[in-house]
Structures are given as structure tokens and as C-alpha cells.
Amino acid sequence: MSAQNDESQGAGSASAPITVVGSANQDYLLRVEASPSPGETVLAHGMRKNPGGKGANQAVAAARLGGDVRFVGCVGDDDDGALLLRELRAEGVGTSDVEIITREHTGLAIVAVDTTGENSIVVVPGANFALTESRVTRVVRRDAAGGVVVLQAEVQPRIIAGAVAAADDAGARVVLNLAPFVALAADVVAACDPLVVNESEASAMTGLPVSTLDDAHAAAGELLGRARSVVITLGARGAVWADGDGTGHVPAPALDRVVDTTGAGDAFVGALAVRLSEGAALEDAVELGVRAGTYSVAREGAQSSYAMAADLRHAEARTA
């Protein structure tokens, strides 16, 4: 059954389409006491397979909050690819622009989660790197006019550049989550509204240390000179934002226990995209993103941990 039922529409019905261009992976989630150091072998307490990939994660997070979402990507012609497609469809994500690649396996990620909920991830791109600039450009120009285009960096940089150029031509708003960090041309970054990065990615872009809230504000100010707007996510401290109207900090709600941080940044981006698709101000979009990310870290897995709109309403009511 689609995740977009009546109850889940409470984050607001999206007023514009959301096109997510990115990766789809099968996640192999390992539970460990602590992630291994170089040369060290550790025993895992168990292993689970979950649908993942930053692109698919963000698409699911947005769809669960009522977004009108389509996903553009590639999977292999294998069991993992078939499973990922079924999961996306079950969540209400449009998959007509997902290409099945016979010559590559579906992307996968090995995710080690320790007892504090922190994770270490190794990604094998597989079919994700078969995504072509011509197809992405065609889909974005055809479907994204007036909407929001969401991108991440688990696809090749030329795909990001092509999608951004097509989105700009179509009058779509570009949300780029530059994770993992890759160097991009200045004109690609300049179209981002917002550019979304975490502390380490912001530091890599600016050369500035980003360890305190003041550091994050300074880095956001520097990045605002390159992009139309900027968001720096800070984990348990929430997020800092900056645009032409001002800057601010949205703190995260307190949690008794962090279970698993896998995919929390993707929950944030998906929620932010939904709010922006409704025409909200960046500060309001960041506020929903912080609540969605906080909700996810209290639960195991990536997509399986994401909130419906009703979940966030109930969580807000409990803390009011």
C-alpha cells in the first residue's frame, strides 16, 4: 500500500513535484560493538538487508511526508534491484524513470553500526554509475518545471552538473546534498538553493574548521557567497541555515537514546524538499528537516526509520 495515505498528508500536500536524481543501494547493516580500526577484525552481532542509497532514501523520506515524488536512477537486473523497485513503489515513489541495467549489479553499501548508533559506510556504486547525463537531462526538462530537483553525490559529478543545468533551465529549485563530498564547478554550486552539507563537507569546501555552532555560522556565511542558500547539518545540534533573507540555527529535539544514525541526513533532506515544494521559507523547511532527522535516529535502519507526517505531528505534540 502507498505510504501516501490520508493520515500521512499532514506535512502538507506538495504543491510542486519533487524529482530525485540519485543512487539506489541495497544496504547490508552490521551491528558491532565498535567499528574496526585498520588491521583489526571484529565480530558482528547480526546482519540485516535494508533498501538504501542516498537518492532512494531521500525519495522515500519525501514521499512519506506527502511529497509528489519521482525517482531517476539505475538498478541492476538482479534480485536486489527488483526489491528496491518494489519498495520504492510501495512507498508511493514514481519509478517509471528508473532504468534496469543488465551489465551491472545493483549498488550496495556495507554499513557498520556501533553501540552508540554511529555508523561507518562503504559504498559499491554498481549500476548507479550507469546513469547517463542525456537521460537525466531529458527527464528533468520534461517533468521538473516549477518543482524541486533533489541531488546527492553517490552518482558521477557530470550527472549532477547536467541535472542542475536542466533544472535551472526548467525553472526548478535545486537542492543539492553534497554527500559524499566531491569537487564541483562553481556554476553548479551557484545554482543550489540550498546546498546541504554536514560539518565535514562544509569544512572540505571552505577550508575552515566546523566543530562549533559559531564555526558553522561562519562556514555558512562563506558558502552563501557561492550558492543561493546554504544548510549545514550538525547532527544532535540541529542545523544552521543561511539565505538572502538572513541566517539562523534550528536546534534538534532532545533524545533519550540514539539507535542508528544511518540515513538521518537523507531523512532531513527529504523533509526539507517537501516543505520547499510547498513554497515554505528555508527556515521552516530546515525545522521540518531537523524533526524528521531526529525521529529517524531513534529507530533502526534508513528508510525503515523514516517518519510519516502523523509521526512528526505526534512527536511535536509530546514536546510542546
From TrEMBL:
<dbReference type="GO" id="GO:0005524">
    <property type="term" value="F:ATP binding"/>
</dbReference>
<feature type="binding site">
    <location>
        <position position="301"/>
    </location>
    <ligand>
        <name>K(+)</name>
    </ligand>
</feature>
<dbReference type="GO" id="GO:0004747">
    <property type="term" value="F:ribokinase activity"/>
</dbReference>
<dbReference type="GO" id="GO:0005829">
    <property type="term" value="C:cytosol"/>
</dbReference>
<keyword id="KW-0547">Nucleotide-binding</keyword>
<dbReference type="InterPro" id="IPR011877">
    <property type="entry name" value="Ribokinase"/>
</dbReference>
<feature type="binding site">
    <location>
        <position position="260"/>
    </location>
    <ligand>
        <name>K(+)</name>
    </ligand>
</feature>
<feature type="binding site">
    <location>
        <position position="262"/>
    </location>
    <ligand>
        <name>K(+)</name>
    </ligand>
</feature>
<keyword id="KW-0119">Carbohydrate metabolism</keyword>
<keyword id="KW-0067">ATP-binding</keyword>
<keyword id="KW-0418">Kinase</keyword>
<feature type="active site" description="Proton acceptor">
    <location>
        <position position="266"/>
    </location>
</feature>
<keyword id="KW-0808">Transferase</keyword>
<feature type="binding site">
    <location>
        <position position="296"/>
    </location>
    <ligand>
        <name>K(+)</name>
    </ligand>
</feature>
<comment type="pathway">
    <text>Carbohydrate metabolism; D-ribose degradation; D-ribose 5-phosphate from beta-D-ribopyranose: step 2/2.</text>
</comment>
<feature type="binding site">
    <location>
        <begin position="265"/>
        <end position="266"/>
    </location>
    <ligand>
        <name>ATP</name>
    </ligand>
</feature>
<feature type="binding site">
    <location>
        <position position="198"/>
    </location>
    <ligand>
        <name>ATP</name>
    </ligand>
</feature>
<dbReference type="GO" id="GO:0019303">
    <property type="term" value="P:D-ribose catabolic process"/>
</dbReference>
<comment type="function">
    <text>Catalyzes the phosphorylation of ribose at O-5 in a reaction requiring ATP and magnesium. The resulting D-ribose-5-phosphate can then be used either for sythesis of nucleotides, histidine, and tryptophan, or as a component of the pentose phosphate pathway.</text>
</comment>
<feature type="binding site">
    <location>
        <position position="299"/>
    </location>
    <ligand>
        <name>K(+)</name>
    </ligand>
</feature>
<dbReference type="InterPro" id="IPR002139">
    <property type="entry name" value="Ribo/fructo_kinase"/>
</dbReference>
<comment type="subunit">
    <text>Homodimer.</text>
</comment>
<feature type="binding site">
    <location>
        <begin position="25"/>
        <end position="27"/>
    </location>
    <ligand>
        <name>substrate</name>
    </ligand>
</feature>
<dbReference type="InterPro" id="IPR029056">
    <property type="entry name" value="Ribokinase-like"/>
</dbReference>
<feature type="domain" description="Carbohydrate kinase PfkB">
    <location>
        <begin position="18"/>
        <end position="305"/>
    </location>
</feature>
<dbReference type="InterPro" id="IPR002173">
    <property type="entry name" value="Carboh/pur_kinase_PfkB_CS"/>
</dbReference>
<feature type="binding site">
    <location>
        <begin position="53"/>
        <end position="57"/>
    </location>
    <ligand>
        <name>substrate</name>
    </ligand>
</feature>
<protein>
    <recommendedName>
        <fullName>Ribokinase</fullName>
        <ecNumber>2.7.1.15</ecNumber>
    </recommendedName>
</protein>
<keyword id="KW-0460">Magnesium</keyword>
<comment type="similarity">
    <text>Belongs to the carbohydrate kinase PfkB family. Ribokinase subfamily.</text>
</comment>
<feature type="binding site">
    <location>
        <position position="154"/>
    </location>
    <ligand>
        <name>substrate</name>
    </ligand>
</feature>
<keyword id="KW-0963">Cytoplasm</keyword>
<dbReference type="InterPro" id="IPR011611">
    <property type="entry name" value="PfkB_dom"/>
</dbReference>
<dbReference type="GO" id="GO:0046872">
    <property type="term" value="F:metal ion binding"/>
</dbReference>
<keyword id="KW-0479">Metal-binding</keyword>
<feature type="binding site">
    <location>
        <position position="305"/>
    </location>
    <ligand>
        <name>K(+)</name>
    </ligand>
</feature>
<dbReference type="Pfam" id="PF00294">
    <property type="entry name" value="PfkB"/>
</dbReference>
<feature type="binding site">
    <location>
        <position position="266"/>
    </location>
    <ligand>
        <name>substrate</name>
    </ligand>
</feature>
<comment type="similarity">
    <text>Belongs to the carbohydrate kinase pfkB family.</text>
</comment>
<keyword id="KW-0630">Potassium</keyword>
<feature type="binding site">
    <location>
        <begin position="233"/>
        <end position="238"/>
    </location>
    <ligand>
        <name>ATP</name>
    </ligand>
</feature>
